[in-house]
Amino acid sequence: MAVTLGPDDVERAAAALDAGRLVAFPTETVYGLGADASSPTAVRRIFEVKGRPTGHPLIVHVAEAADLGRFGRRVPDVAMDLARAFWPGPLTLIVERGDPIAIETTGGRDTVGLRVPDHPATLALLRAFGRGVAGPSANRFGSVSPTIAAHVVDDLGGHLGADDVVLDGGPCRVGLESTIVDVSGPSPTLLRPGGISAVEIEAVLGSPLLDDRGGPARASGMLASHYAPDVTVRLIEADELGTALGAAVRDTSTPRPKGSAPRPTMVGVVAPFPVEHRPSWSLPGDAASYGARLYATLRQADRCDLDLLLVVGPTRGDLRDAVLDRLVKAAAPRSR
Ligand code: TXA
Ligand code: MG
Question: What is the 3 state secondary structure string of the chain?
């Protein structure tokens, strides 16, 4: 079990990184599970603790936009433009990998994802540490990302060591992972929608982003089933709710122990409006506010012993694309 520190203890957290330990850290998006990005042994422990295949590249967190040139190579002007516009903030830029990044960090790739997170404690940590911090979301591979420190302890507490650290910086403001844009090729390409909308990015670029989400599974967040709670999720439109509820209650296919009395199917609902007479979570209609609460809500639903969770997405807002991306993945068939 790791030691939990407050934002005043960043020097101790930086010392832990320096000693090759793991430090879970707060960001504006979700909590990250950090290690020294230049150390193959430190980075290997991230993959072990997360249960993540070692071929999946990790994002590297850096202190300022000027670090693009330090941790990346042959960084194009368009990367600097986007960094200046959105850092610190929920945008990850894929550039050619620079020498200070261990090849284990990028799962063998010659490119690296860099970002400056927008959280005061973690910016102080990055400045105190002075090197890049590799950090995927601080959850077990494939499950829901953590948006408070307690989620990290719930998921990873049993896997972290006594010298590892959880830096508690309060709840994450955005609550959805960063937008990932690949600027290592000829045209900026969206790999994962996230906390900054494509519209905002295109306004800086002055041209449309290519969209490679349907491409080969380059980013683990691009795998069909990801961001998934334990409960079965079905994504529906608001006007399908009545029919879906009726069908779920009549469904007798749910397996139950032999000889046990049949019990009604337990169905929960997450929607941008209140639903009566069943476990339900009413989220705001605006995608940014809906997204900020989504992961904590999925974790709550997981504790309710439901057979099925029906989810209606947000009604409006630029981040609707990012929220729907996570909901589609939460609802995808599982291989776990
Ligand atoms: O908001 C975030 O991005 C959070 C916080 C902690 O910064 N991090 C995060 O990391 O979501 P993770 O590992 O859960 O997702 C990172 C995504 C993965 O889908 C990974 O495959 C992709 O970034 N990625 C990282 N480096 C890449 C590269 N060189 N090329 C393509 N995809 C890359
Ligand atoms: Mg993740």
Answer: CCEEECHHHHHHHHHHHHCCCCEEECCCCCCEEEEECCCHHHHHHHHHHHCCCCCCCCEEECCCCCHHHHHEECCCHHHHHHHHHHCCCCEEEEEEECCCCCCCCCCCCCEEEEECCCCHHHHHHHHHHCCCEECCECCCCCCCCCCCHHHHHHHHCCCCCCCCEEECCCCCCCCCCCEEEECCCCCCEEEECCCCCHHHHHHHHCCCCEECCCCCCCCHHHCCCCCCCCCCEEEECHHHHHHHHHHHHHCCCCCCCCCCCCCCCCEEEEECCCCCCCCEEECCCEHHHHHHHHHHHHHHHHCCCCCEEEEECCCECCCHHHHHHHHHHHHCCCCC
